């Protein structure tokens, strides 16, 4: 079945001459001219031509271009005598391009066409559209998965990369085309799992060098301080027989060792704080 759908899609593509938004300008202009001249056939022909152009469209339409297509279909419904369909199509056009105003040349004041345009509703209820895997939907020029339930819409199906796969103008009561042939496999995104927090043992192992360094600094400071105490004891011993110069040198050495021991102690305390926070 899938092979049949793919072949059908390829056959459709083979019969299509790629078109762009610029190719829609001619049928839109012809339709407006038919309305101005009160000629029905040019309006019907313009609607048919626009639908054929949409079928082979290769680019996304802007909301203003979408509104022009809705207005063209409104003209077609008007010449066919379907005032309700005219009003609904005008509502879709006004919603897509609220700034557009119908001209006096196209519909003079007080004429039925102008009244239908002015009284068309902008309110709309929507329904969710189920899309083939690997595709996106643009509804009236805006990316959406919601289709209007009570007025027509111009739908464009695209690939995830933005390539236009299908374009169709549908009334509110028309079913969606079978787009299943456009489904494509979507690779599963590889999500990097967060690293688990380190265990308590890992934290202790990571902090071990800091504890060792802290302990070494404290021990070294204690050793130097003990050495300074020994010098002090030697200094106050009156039986050593040292002269004044020797005593001064011994005193200076003891004081230096006290300063060094204090510095080593401070370093040890700092390393201990680092180890606690590591």
Helix content: 40-55%
Largest sheet: 4 strands, antiparallel
Count of helical regions: 8
Compute the number of strand runs.
6
Please write the string of helix (H) and strand (E) elements. HHHHHHEEEEEEHH
Stretches with pLDDT under 50, minimum 5 residues: 1-11, 199-204
Morphology: rod-shaped
| Average of the residue pLDDT scores | 83
Share in β-strands: 5-15%
* SS content category: alpha+beta
Radius of gyration: 43 Å
Terminal CA distance reads 63 Å
Summarize, please.
Helices cover about 55% and strands about 10% of the residues.
Q: Can you tell me about this structure?
A:
- The protein is built from 8 helices and 6 strands, in the order H-H-H-H-H-H-E-E-E-E-E-E-H-H.
- The protein has 278 residues and is of the alpha+beta class.
- Strands 3-2-5-6 form a 4-stranded antiparallel β-sheet. It has a two-stranded antiparallel sheet with strand order 1-4.
- Helix 2 runs parallel beside helix 4, helix 3 (40-55) packs antiparallel against helix 4 (63-79) and helix 4 (63-79) packs antiparallel against helix 5 (83-96).
- The longest helix is centred in the last third of the chain and has 37 residues, at 200-236.
- The protein is rod-shaped, with a radius of gyration of 43 Å.
């Amino acid at each position: 079945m899938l092979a049949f759908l793919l072949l059908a899609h390829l056959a459709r593509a083979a019969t299509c001459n790629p078109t762009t938004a610029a190719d829609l300008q001619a049928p839109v202009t012809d339709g407006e001219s038919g309305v101005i001249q009160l000629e029905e056939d040019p309006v019907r022909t313009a609607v048919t031509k626009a639908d054929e152009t949409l079928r082979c469209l290769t680019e996304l339409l802007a909301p203003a271009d979408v509104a022009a297509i809705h207005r063209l279909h409104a003209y077609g419904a008007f010449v066919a005598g379907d005032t309700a369909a005219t009003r609904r199509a005008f509502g879709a056009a006004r919603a897509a391009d609220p700034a557009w105003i119908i001209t006096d040349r196209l519909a003079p004041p007080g004429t039925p066409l102008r009244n239908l345009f002015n009284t068309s509703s902008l309110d709309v209820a929507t329904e969710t559209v189920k899309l083939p895997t690997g595709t996106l939907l643009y509804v009236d020029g805006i990316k959406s998965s919601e289709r209007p339930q009570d007025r027509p819409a111009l739908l464009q199906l695209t690939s995830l990369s933005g390539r236009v796969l299908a374009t169709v103008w549908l009334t509110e009561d028309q079913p969606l085309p079978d787009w299943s042939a456009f489904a494509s496999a979507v690779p599963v995104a590889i999500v990097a799992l967060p690293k688990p927090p380190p265990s308590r043992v890992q934290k202790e192992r990571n902090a071990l060098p800091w504890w060792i360094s802290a302990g070494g600094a404290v021990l070294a400071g204690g050793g130097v301080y003990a050495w300074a105490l020994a010098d002090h004891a030697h200094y106050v011993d009156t039986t050593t027989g040292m002269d004044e110069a020797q005593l001064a040198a011994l005193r200076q050495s003891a004081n230096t060792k006290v300063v060094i021991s204090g510095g080593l102690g401070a370093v040890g305390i700092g390393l201990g704080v680092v180890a606690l926070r590591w």
